[in-house]
Design brief:
- The complex is a heterodimer of chains A (468) and B (114).
- Chain A is α/β, with parallel strands linked by helices and 468 residues long.
- Chain A is built from 15 helices and eleven strands.
- Chain A is globular.
- Chain B contains four helices and no strands.
- The longest helix of chain B is centred in the last third of the chain and has 22 residues.
- Classes of the chains: A alpha/beta (468), B mainly alpha (114).
- At the A-B interface, helix 10, helix 12, helix 13 and helix 14 of A face helix 2, helix 3 and helix 4 of B.
């Protein structure tokens, strides 16, 4: 079975239909993605470990089951990559950091187990910013595997901390990927790599087996080539897990396909796009026109004013310093890639307990204010990032002076545990992708996916292919 | 007994802090992470790190100074100064005695109600 280049950029939904109808062999598909991971992955700094042997075993099993009439669902036979902070039995799990490059667990993360049960095929452990960026990295070259490069222009970063999932999904090296977000780590690489990313509601997906950076903020979520795919993947990985006390029994339930169309109400966050890069603003305004074709668009929605940045920074610092206390106190932080990360853990270790508690106390009024706001609409929209991606080389604070995304939407959503869906919406300077995000109430993931799917039914940006 | 740094003396550290005051501040971790729409604009710090930031950095030096250079201690002082300012911003939000941290402790071996 010969695969065309375009096959590797199909959505999960499209791949699944071909597999189910036996037009596409899971084994051939896995072999094709493995070859691309080995051939293209290094150029993008996207891959830590190609799991060829495991992948071929899983793909052959999927092919045999499907041939025998046992089809497990839309992920059966679909190759995927996991951010290298998810434990995989017998395979290195490096957390993107040199001090852990030989780390091997003897168990699988719950997400990996759930995806295996759904019939998905693990083809790679994907690169990430070291320790998911917990020590304050300020440069794209922030992993022991080198910088993640966006396939749209490899002089630029693929975003972080889920740098590998972003680049690999955009470049057609995997069918989909799993990323993680503490505060921005799915949203940013989705935007910078031009893929659709879903940060699920906190607790919706078990984090058992995932590296802990910040227990009260960490989340796992899908990074895909369409919003619909994000829903399919979330449906497979969501649910209560006795191994993660924060997980909740809220299975993902997509809107029924025959549901009567309705007029949605979407608000535009005031101040979120006025000071962004010109192309980001222009593309966002075009997205608003698309939304206007099937939504009531409410302009100038005031976002609650809270110190989101200081609160999320304090919480990440305190919990991260504890999570990696052994690394910091042993002096092995000096082995980290980014100069900032080599001392950031020591600064974080001096976070005052009273400041951490203050930040945790603020989360309640933040949640209350945000929920009251989101209760008035189906979702809010804003640019996912104020700029296109940052160049490889200079520190982040040296580029794009004067650009601002206004309210701290990313920090706010993470502090409140609310979901976000990033949708590509065009290109900006240097041929780099731009994106906007839907944000909504806790457990409105289904609504965001429905809205994103409706946008993508009216646009082609998510189908664009980078020059790899 | 606290560890003493063989690398950076208190006097050398004080000189580093003075030099650090003239340099632009490094972004706090939250911004660098993209945690709250990272602003790429450098944050100027015309003033030296506050005395509290210096004191906290001295604790870092005493506890872990053997792992850190003077330059890194200067960076830590600037970062801590930024965090202390963030803490001041958080204190401006009015909370009452009844406002609890948004975490729930539950007794029992499972840690969570079923």
């Amino acid at each position: 079975m010969t695969l065309e280049e375009s096959d590797f950029f199909l959505s999960v939904q499209q791949l699944s239909q071909k597999i189910k109808s036996r037009q596409l062999s899971p084994v051939a598909l896995a072999e094709g993605y493995l070859d691309r991971l080995e051939r293209i992955g290094p150029r993008l700094g996207a891959v830590v470990t190609v799991t060829r042997d495991l992948a071929m075993t899983e793909a052959k099993a999927a092919e045999a089951e499907i041939a025998a009439g046992k089809w497990r669902g839309p992920l059966h036979g679909i190759p995927y990559g996991a951010k290298d902070l998810l434990a995989t039995k017998g395979i290195p799990t490096t957390w993107g950091a040199a001090p852990f490059r030989d780390q091997v667990f003897d168990y699988d993360a719950t997400v990996v187990t759930k995806l295996r049960e759904a019939g998905a095929v693990l083809v790679a452990k994907l690169a990430m910013v070291e320790l998911a960026g917990g020590f304050g990295y300020n440069n794209a070259d922030a992993s022991f595997t080198g910088p993640g490069r966006t396939p749209w222009n490899t002089d630029f970063w693929s975003g972080g901390s889920s740098s590998g999932p972003g680049a690999a999904t955009a470049a057609g090296l995997v069918g989909f990927s799993i990323g993680s977000e503490t505060s921005g780590s799915i949203v940013t690489p989705a935007a910078f790599s031009g893929v659709t990313g879903l940060r699920p509601t906190y607790g919706r997906v078990s984090r058992h087996g995932a590296m802990a950076l910040c227990w009260t903020l960490d989340k796992l979520g899908p990074m895909c080539r369409s919003a619909e795919d994000c829903g399919l993947v979330l449906a497979a990985i969501a649910g209560k897990d006795p191994m993660d006390a924060t997980s909740v029994n809220r299975p993902y339930r997509p809107a029924p396909s025959g549901a009567k169309p309705r007029r949605w109400k979407v608000g535009v966050i005031k101040g979120s796009f006025e000071k962004t890069q010109p192309e980001v603003r222009k593309n966002f305004e075009e997205s608003l026109k698309v939304l206007g074709s099937f939504c009531d668009v409410v302009p100038d929605v005031e976002f609650p004013d809270f110190p989101y940045g200081p609160a999320v920074g304090t919480i990440v610092s305190a919990e991260g310093a504890s999570a990696f206390r052994d690394l910091v106190e042993s002096g092995r932080a000096k082995e980290l890639r980014v100069p900032n990360d080599r001392w950031g853990g020591y600064a974080a270790s001096m976070t005052l307990a009273v400041d951490y508690i203050q930040a945790m106390r603020l989360r309640a009024p933040m949640k209350k204010a945000l929920d009251a706001l989101y209760a008035k609409v189906d979702a809010l929209v804003s640019p996912a990032r104020a700029s296109v991606s940052y160049p490889i080389g200079p520190d982040f604070d040296k580029v794009y002076p004067g650009i601002s995304g206004g309210p701290g939407v990313i920090g706010a959503g993470n502090l409140a545990g609310q979901p976000a869906l990033v949708v590509p919406n065009g290109f900006g300077e240097n041929g780099l992708p731009t994106a906007f995000q839907f944000t909504g109430r806790a457990f409105s993931d289904e609504t965001l996916v429905t809205l994103g799917t409706a946008v993508q039914a009216r646009t082609e940006w998510h189908r664009k292919r980078p020059p790899v | 007994m606290p560890e003493r740094s063989p690398v950076t003396s208190r006097r050398a550290f004080a000189r580093t802090l003075a030099a650090a005051a003239a340099a632009p501040a490094l972004l706090p971790a939250a911004a660098a992470l993209g945690q709250a729409a990272p602003t790429p604009t450098p944050v100027p710090t015309p003033e030296a790190p506050s005395s509290v930031a210096e004191a906290l950095t001295e604790v870092v030096r005493i506890r872990w100074g053997k792992h850190l250079s003077g330059e890194q201690l200067g960076d830590i002082a600037k970062a801590l100064d930024g965090r202390l300012k963030g803490a001041e911003a958080m204190k401006k939000v009015k909370l009452t005695n009844a406002d609890e941290p948004d975490v729930v402790f539950t007794a029992g071996p499972e840690g969570r109600p079923s």
